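queue> holo job accepted (magnesium ion)
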Amino acid sequence: MTTRPVLLAGAPESLLQQLRGALPNAVLKPCKAGLSAEQFRAAGAAAAVVALEPDPETGFRTVRDLALAGVPAIVVGSQKDADLILRAMREGAKEFVLVGDGPGLVRALRALLRGGEGRTAGAVHAVFPSKGGVGATTLAANLAGLLQARGERTCLVDLNLNMGDVLAFLDLPGGFSISDVIANIGRLDRSLLDTTLLRHRSGIHVLAQSHRVEDADRVDPGALSALIGFLREHYGAVVLDGLRSFDDLSVAALDASDNVLLVATQEVPAVRDARRCVQLFQRLGHDRKLALVVNRYQKQLEIDVQVMADTVGEPVRATVANDYPAVIRCVNKGLLLAEEAPKAQVTRDCDAIATLLLGTEPEQQPAAKRSFFQRILPLRASHATE
Ligand SMILES: Nc1ncnc2c1ncn2[C@@H]1O[C@H](COP(=O)(O)OP(=O)(O)OP(=O)(O)O)[C@@H](O)[C@H]1O
Ligand SMILES: [Mg+2]
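queue> job finished
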């Protein structure tokens, strides 16, 4: 990340604290709203955050002067008012974020800072099981491997801090743990990450709490948001496994995610739990990030994709074939499907999800990232009509 400062024009102390936690490597510089374009230019800022309150006119003038000085700005306002947003954009703002939407602000700021360096921030994909044993870890690990194979630097994170099974799944020993990374976040850079994080033979980096279970309670929601933000800076893709309940940590992880794959199987308890999950996602405002995935899919079963979609209240965006022999061979050898069973339907199904998460066809380079909603549409057409 750039060392040029980020100006916080007229921003309250609470915003400064929030950004400090989430962007520990950024140089944050509070300043008065209403400085001149010359003064902004002299500050050599990489980006700016401008508060519209308490005086929107001063805020708009600040945005205009920042634009004149060539400093990209994000406007923070307390209302999603179309006129205010339009005015902010006309004055030259790059983004409009609501007061209180901390993750949204961090995401927008990170994207601006990355944009300055010609790169975009990595994407965070959470794999969320509707109930235990539906195959979340299987999908998370294989998706991580497939994203890595497509050229995305990928980090797989096991958020089940006490009983995670990603390490066993990939036959990796314990190593630098989640709480270790959190404790050293200000000191770690990309090369240190490369040397300290566990690496699977597929190339993915893996982060779990491993043997340091006694430190798990140091991982609070704020620390977790900061960790995910930090990983996003260094990886093209971050895949989260080990989420289940809607406790504070899971909610923080969901807030920080761009996409949430809700995994269910064709069984009544899994479908009913998926329905309850969708309702909770709606309450949390995350339903737009959501994609329902049916794992262990068998076409002939009575609970087909249409029944699932109708019951869960979400279209089925992807199915992953039931192939216990291939999956269990992988687990027993610490391998991923792409290596153990490259031609199997189960592998091709996982690959289709990776394609959708990337928003590219396999032969293309990962380029501009479209919204999850746009990317996922083609799959809806191919599977939901079965
Ligand atoms: N597509 C699949 N085809 C056949 N078997 C599968 C498939 N996906 C997962 N399994 C099997 O289902 C079982 C549970 O898988 P997994 O551990 O990935 O689920 P989970 O949701 O992470 O479970 P937990 O609740 O323990 O975290 C394992 O035995 C795994 O081999
Ligand atoms: Mg699991």
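queue> The pocket of adenosine-5'-triphosphate (ligand 1) is lined by residues 129, 132-138, 295-296, 320, 322-324, 327-328, 331, 346 (CB under 6 Å).
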